[in-house]
From TrEMBL:
Gene Ontology terms, MF aspect: ATP binding; sequence-specific DNA binding
InterPro entries, A to Z: AAA+_ATPase, AAA_lid_NorR, CheY-like_superfamily, Homeodomain-like_sf, HTH_Fis, P-loop_NTPase, Sig_transdc_resp-reg_receiver, Sigma_54_int
SUPFAM superfamilies per record: CheY-like, Homeodomain-like, P-loop containing nucleoside triphosphate hydrolases
PROSITE patterns found in the cross-reference section: RESPONSE_REGULATORY, SIGMA54_INTERACT_1, SIGMA54_INTERACT_2, SIGMA54_INTERACT_3, SIGMA54_INTERACT_4
Origin superkingdom: Bacteria
Name under which the protein is recorded: Two component, sigma54 specific, transcriptional regulator, Fis family
One of the GO BP terms on file: regulation of DNA-templated transcription
Location of 4-aspartylphosphate modifications: D65
Domain Sigma-54 factor interaction, chain residue ranges per copy: 154-382
Lineage: Bacteria, Pseudomonadati, Pseudomonadota, Gammaproteobacteria, Alteromonadales
Amino acid sequence: MNQNEAIAKPLPTAVSVLIVDDEPGMRSFLNKALSKKFALVETAGSVEEAEQLRSRCHFDLIIVDIRLPGRSGIEWHEALSDEDRRSDIIFMTGYADMEVAIQALRAGASDFIMKPFHLEQMLKAVDRAIERRLLKRENLMLRREVSIGYSSSIIGNSAAMQEVKNIIARVAPTNAVVLIEGESGTGKELVARQLHQLSGRQGPFVPVNCGAIAPELLESELFGHAAGSFTGAKGAREGLFSFASGGTIFLDEIGEMPLKMQTALLRVLEQKAIRPVGSEKEVSIDVRVVAATNRKLADEVEAGHFRRDLFYRLNVLEIQIPPLRDRPEDVVELTHHFTRVLGAELGVRELVWSHEDLSRLQQHDWPGNIRELRNMIERSILLGKPPAEYWKTTIKEVEPGQFGFPLEWPLKDVEKHHVLAVVEAHGGNKSAAARDLGVSRKTLDRKFKEWFGTDSDEEE
């Protein structure tokens, strides 16, 4: 490959690069070469300048000299703690020191280049780093999709969740804005994804956590920006609304959105158009908006923290997701679901839950809701037993008709319902269920034959 081929190699332009070197000539040389390939290239002469730039913008790739005034490039890289947004890094040095090279690679460098170097050498290193980064990003998205895929259907047959499913089925085919309210961990994103999947829209589902993006960056992230709209914006960039064209954008934690952005979002919902930061032109969009919050937005409106007009615009259709403590009958189904899924994902033997275990789980308050239940099950599978803190309390006395059977049921129906629940709790293993019930397997087989007119099915 010659130098011209290296320069012409196509790479995504929406890549940001930071060059850190105390030599002005080197900064200018690399800036000129890389600005032809990428939308944002910044330069800094020291770690302090680099930190100032990083506080305003995330960089996909950092090219840094190892020897810098005050602090070495390696020391700086090792001190970076934002794991979720850590940049890929290429170290440069003019000193042929094998120990330093090894130290750089151990610090997680994508590449290590000796000065002086040919431009072709640096461009190849940049290509490799960006390609690896894109591959990591694709793998992360695939893992996320697989993770979501195995639980894309909403688990739970309680009356409250049946109502949620009915609302989703009715409103999904429309283009109406939907507001989902529920405590943290109740599955608001799962409901939003179900709305998208059943909508028939061909575009992507784009989730955005409004509380996780710095307020000064949120407008650019959502609506994009024009070239030159702010320092470092050397090229135009599309926002997430544009990326979601033809699909659904999910604005999670909408209650965290600053008032200024609320005004901009209201205009987007009313005009069905966005205006990128620094642009005078509006761009029409075809995006369905689904919003979610763990706050009571009506209360936020009364407190003056959320715009009343935006609340009414978002609250066209509302879905309230009940907390897990209000639907204990769903805990058993969710427990078996996560046990199967996580057991397969972790590559370990499935945990068998006793009837007493499941009864205790149903009585736990679950302040973290489904997220907490899933976390507990994952820990239980890894430990081989449930965490002790979930078994500190004894089983409460249950008042007649509180959770179980209607008081008017005859005894034979209560017996049948209870036996089937215990068998289900053991994933269909009738021998284990018989032990819990205090009867023989033969007796259990006889009951099944009496109820269904067939012999007991084979155990799973």
